Amino acid sequence: MTRERIICVTPNAALDRTMVVPDFAIGRISRIQSGLAVAGGKGLNVARAVRVLGGQPLAMGLLGGHTGRMVAALVAEEGYEAEWTPFEGETRTCTIVANAEGVSTVINESGRIAPSDWSALAEDVCRAAARADVTTVCMCGSLPLGAPADAPRGLIERLNRLGLRVWVDSSRTALQNAIAAKPYAIKINRDELAAALGERLQTTRDAITVARLLAAEGIRIVVVTLGAEGALLAQDNLLVTATPPAIQPLDPIASGDCLLAGLVTALAEDAEFPEALRRGVAAGTVNALYAGGAQFPYSHFLRILEDTHIEILPT
In sequence order, what are the beta bridge partners of 57? Predict the structure, then answer.
């Protein structure tokens, strides 16, 4: 059987409430222009975008309490496949406020689990990843309080042994632990890369240098997002950038997640790495034009893709 399913793991899922408030300011009463409640967390955004882009996602993660049941119901309503690991506790809620300029204020709860909950999630993910139609696992977002100090290293190492393409999009200690496990790929922004490695990355050239170093040390693909400038992809023998068209963003939240979705769906279709990066950057860009995270139409993605350009740089 052809391997094609993409598992999108959200260890710290959330109920995301997004509000568009054109005149938002601290210390005043505002009326929202529009609002949206969706199942949130980076892995769920990736799963949603994978589906929009024609891929086959399987959402996985920890859910608990009344909020967890609401998140599961919202995912079911959206119609993509999910397998949840329950825990005794309450799934977190995150609030996103976007103003008229497309600047978002994000208030995130931390989430908390027991160590045994992490073990249960790891077992469920490895069991699902062993299926014949799975080729890619995306480990996305923060870890809840209570996860083991070395997470997600052990889980990534187990998935590596299964021969899967493991993508990681995280930050801080979780990212450091993930890098030590040598996943197939990481997708991070410049600030996250700098913080994880204790480096000062003031320019794109600085980011390229560090990305190529990581690629030479055993991570096959390193993707660094550069905001409105697009993103770069480094391998041991390849360096490519992708630049999107200029836009006026409405809500940039989850654009990095959509970029990852564009990458993994393109690679699942056997696209070359430069083209995969182009699709990823186009997906991240079109996402910023819509509120709620991965709520863009495929037709608009295709229009943005036409104006997204790649450049292969000398290595």
Answer: 6
Give the pLDDT band of residue 69 (cuts 50, 70, 90). Answer: very high
State yes or no: cis peptide before 314, omega within 30 of 0: no
What stretches of the chain show up as alpha helix (H) in DSSP? Answer: 42-52, 65-78, 115-129, 153-161, 172-180, 190-197, 204-216, 255-268, 273-287, 298-306
pLDDT at 23 exceeding the cut of 90: no
Give the integer Cα–Cα distance in Å for 56 and 48: 10
Q: Which residue has the tokens 């893709």?
A: 305
- At 281 the pLDDT is 98
Taking CA atoms, 151 is separated from 44, 90, 142, 160, 165, in Å, by 19, 21, 11, 15, 18
Strands ordered across the beta sheet of 92-98:
34-40, 14-20, 92-98, 104-108
Q: Pull the structure tokens for residue 142.
A: 């923060």
Alpha-carbon dihedral sign for residues 194, 198, 203, 204: negative
pLDDT at residue 101, rounded to an integer: 77
Residues 150-160 pLDDT 10s: 999 999 999 99
In percent, the amount of the chain with pLDDT more than 70 equals 99
Q: What is the pTM of this model?
A: 0.91
DSSP state of 117: H
The three-point CA angle 8-9-12 to 5° equals: 135
Beta-strand relationship, 185-189 and 231-234: unpaired
Structure confidence by residue, pLDDT tens digits, 116-148: 999 999 999 999 999 999 999 999 999 999 999
Question: What number of CA atoms fall less than 13 Å from residue 188's CA on the CB side?
Answer: 30
CB contact at 8 A, 33 and 307: no
In which region does residue 89 sit, left (phi positive, over 0), alpha (psi from -120 to 50) or beta (all else)?
Answer: left
